[in-house]
Amino acid sequence: MPLVTTTEMFTKAYEGKYAVGAFNVNNMEIIQGIIEAAREEQAPVILQVSAGARNYAKHIYLTKLVEGAVADAPDVPIALHLDHGDSFELCKACVDGGFTSVMIDGSQYTFEENIALTQKVAAYAHAKGAVVEAELGTLAGIEDDVNVAAENASFTDPAQAVEFVERTGIDSLAIAIGTSHGAYKFKGTPQLDFQRLEKISQLLSGFPLVLHGASTVIPEFVEKCNLYGGKIPGAQGVPEEMLLKAGKMGVCKINVDTDLRLAMTASIRETLAENPAAFDPRSYLGAGRDAIRTMVAHKMRNMLNCSHRI
Ligand SMILES: O=C(CO)COP(=O)(O)O
Ligand SMILES: O=C[C@H](O)COP(=O)(O)O
Ligand SMILES: [Zn+2]
Ligand SMILES: [Zn+2]
After folding, report:
1. Which residues make up the binding site for dihydroxyacetone phosphate (predicted)?
2. Whose CA is nearest to atom 7 of ligand 1?
3. 198 belongs to a structural domain
4. Is the model's pLDDT at 151 over the cut of 70?
5. How many domains does the chain have?
6. 135 C-beta closer than 6 A to ligand 2
7. Pick the catalytic residue: 83, 86, 171, 259?
């Protein structure tokens, strides 16, 4: 099947009380690892591209690789999504360039400015058959060029979320309930505001919610990075059981980037450390690709609960 939007994926996920994984992609090995996992697990999947990834790998290379993925896994529903679009122009370029879904992240603007920008993107994308995710509330952590300090992060207001969805006509909403981007999410015990999620979910009944900054930062992979020369002290993420619970409460899309980075880096470090004579990039990039596949399959089975859903 051709690339799809997220509409049907989210309807099924909402009804089935599970979430679809949205994985950040930057190169061929990452795309192939994710698609191999989706095919093995028979799970729908969202490939998402940040502005940084688009600059790194270039739009045309990424879309051609994704075209390859679609041909390689014809029975898997695959959506191609812009992650954290920060302007109308970027969203337009992605819609025009074959993406089926875009995120406009106006969360750093005032409520009214965020609404105006999101409305404009939604009108354009919908006219072209693409869908739109927007964000209300801000996450702490690093998003592209925006580094939001924890004290400037603000959780999503449930009443505002309803007004925002009604006025913008978006297809899904990213909310802030305590997750954050990157490998350092919590200093003490991990905690999410499930009461807030429940309230938003009640008020927006049936509407797909999105969680960003949802990597688990699995200790095994941090330790492996550190064992083979890395320096990633004190990293901590969102426990998988919390994400599984969120998936039962209206969260239909869960974003994962950091866990893929950690898995790939750990296996590349290990491969090079254990094979000092190796210098064929296929040896360590291939190991990195395998690590992505294993990590994504693990997420699909244990945290998203989206295996065997197609
Ligand atoms: O939200 C993300 C991409 O938009 C990724 O979050 P992580 O950094 O927790 O993987
Ligand atoms: O939310 C951010 C994602 O992890 C993408 O990160 P990036 O902007 O460094 O590509
Ligand atoms: Zn944001
Ligand atoms: Zn994000």
Report:
1. 182, 213-215, 255-258
2. 213
3. yes
4. no
5. 1
6. no
7. 83
Annotation says 259 is catalytic: no
The residue whose C-alpha atom lies closest to atom 2 belonging to ligand 2 is: 143
ipTM, two decimals: 0.97
Tokens of 231: 């320096």
Q: Is residue 240 part of a domain?
A: yes
Whether residue 120 is contained in a domain is answered as yes
Domain CATH for 294: 3.20.20.70
What's the gap in Å between 155 CA and the centre of ligand 4? 15
Tell me: the pLDDT tens digits for 155-213? 999 999 999 999 999 999 999 999 999 999 998 899 999 999 999 999 999 999 999 99
pLDDT tens-digit readout, 43-64? 999 999 999 999 999 999 999 9
State the Cα–Cα distance between residues 135 and 155, nearest whole angstrom.
Answer: 11
Q: What integer pLDDT is reported at residue 253 of this predicted model?
A: 99
Identify the residue whose C-alpha is closest to ligand 1 atom 6.
Answer: 213
Distance CA 44, CA 296 (A): 12
- Reported as a single tens digit per residue, the pLDDT across 287-309 is 999 999 999 999 999 999 999 99
Residue 59 domain boundaries: 7-304
Tokens representing 32 are: 């192939």
Which H or E run contains 197?
helix 194-203
CB of residue 54 inside a 6 A radius of ligand 2: no
Burial of 195 (0-12, 13-18, 19+ CB in 10 A): exposed
The answer to the question of residue 92 being in a domain is: yes
Is residue 84 within 6 Å of ligand 2 at its C-beta? yes
Instruction: Give yes or no for a contact between 32 and 107, defined as CB atoms under 8 angstroms apart.
Output: no
Query: How far, in Å, is the centroid of ligand 4 from the Cα of 216?
Result: 14
- Note the pLDDT of residue 139: 86
